[in-house]
Amino acid sequence: MVKKRLPPSSSSSALRPHLWLGSKIIVSFVIFLCIFALLRLHSQSKHLSLASARAASVRRPSDPFVGLPKIAFLFLARSNLPLDFLWQRFFQNAYEGSFSIYIHSKPGIVFDESTTRCTFFQGRQLSKSVQVAWGESSMIKAEKLLLEEALQDPANQRFVLISDSCVPLHNFSYIYNYVMSSSKSFVDSFLDEKEGRYNPKMSPTIPKDRWRKGSQWITLVRKHAEVIVDDDLIFPVFNQHCKRRPALDLDGKMNPMSELEEEVERRTLTYTLWNESVNEMERQGWHPITFKYTDADPEHIQEIKGINHVYYETEFRTEWCKSNATYVPCFLFARKFSRGAAMRLLSEGVVGPFNPAALLS
């Protein structure tokens, strides 16, 4: 497993040493498609068929957008969204008309007054969805469905993929200004030459020297979202030849990459803490550490919010977090958070002013 090392900390709490020893990156199949597609934007566009071009024009508006740009929040959920009370407060503090919400859940799930307390989630589920299996290509299909639906609204200019256990680390205004101020996508990407997941049968469509690792949780500008949705070349090859390995190796997935890295910030905006204390026999159970109520104290959250660089061991590379050449904190979101931990963030006012009586209404 490749490590991404974070800055050291003087904290003495039980979980914090793991935070600064390093986080483990576990990669969903979406990154195989995403990085290759968006970084081959120019070289692949000339090879799109006329049929694909016509389909793209039917699928989404083609006129230039004028007005207040939106962030499309794309929630990838297993069933419901258990942290809806925190997101309710987050979106209540948003600018009117500055965001949109799309939810992919398993088929048959409906978000209404009986299933969610977040009014912003009600009726926002996709009309079509697929049954998703972790670590399989169905996850890419779900994420492409989210992007395709979000692209129907020309005001959506940024696209943020969110998990059902994810929380915002800042209020809406901070996150909106951070994301919109950058002209680039945020896509985690690093080389791991020891990883053996590449299948030579993918060549020449997916050359071996273009593979990278990266986090699933991406933030895209609109043209990169369009490239992913329009792809009919990379995903079929990947889906055919890149298969899931036994449980011991689920941490070792790879993604292809091309020459246009200047179009992205090579990092994720979502913080994840991985348990590094397990031995080889325990790796079947590797999973992101879940933050409990006691782990969400203000000092701990502030330490995460203060991280400004990540060290990639396999490339001997320190990625100083920047937005359009300006140094900024690395993370806007974090996972995985329990309901208790999310409640503490709410009570501490992390996402905005909070009135406890609101939960009783």
**What is the helical fraction, as a range of percent?**
25-40%
Low-confidence stretches: 8-58, 245-257, 281-285
Structural shape? globular
Radius of gyration: 20 Å
Overall pLDDT confidence: 77
Strand content is: 15-25%
User: Main β-sheet, in a few words?
Assistant: 4 strands, antiparallel
N/C terminus separation: 46 Å
Number of strands: 17
Tally of helical runs:
11
- Strand order, main sheet: write it out: 2-1-13-14
Name the helix and strand elements from N-terminus to C-terminus, one letter apiece: EHEHHHEHEHEEHEEEHHEEEHEEEEEH
Supply the helix-strand structural class. Answer: alpha/beta
Structural key phrases:
four-stranded mixed sheet, four-stranded antiparallel sheet, globular, alpha/beta, single chain
Give the SSE layout.
Blueprint: E1 3-5, H1 16-21, E2 23-24, H2 30-39, H3 41-45, H4 50-59, E3 70-76, H5 84-92, E4 99-104, H6 138-150, E5 156-163, E6 167-168, H7 172-180, E7 185-186, E8 211-212, E9 219-221, H8 222-230, H9 234-241, E10 255-256, E11 264-265, E12 270-272, H10 298-305, E13 309-312, E14 317-320, E15 322-323, E16 326-327, E17 333-335, H11 339-347
Parallel strand pairs: 3-4, 3-5, 7-11, 12-17
Antiparallel strand pairs: 1-2, 1-13, 5-9, 6-17, 8-10, 13-14, 15-16
Helix pairs in contact: 2-8, 6-8
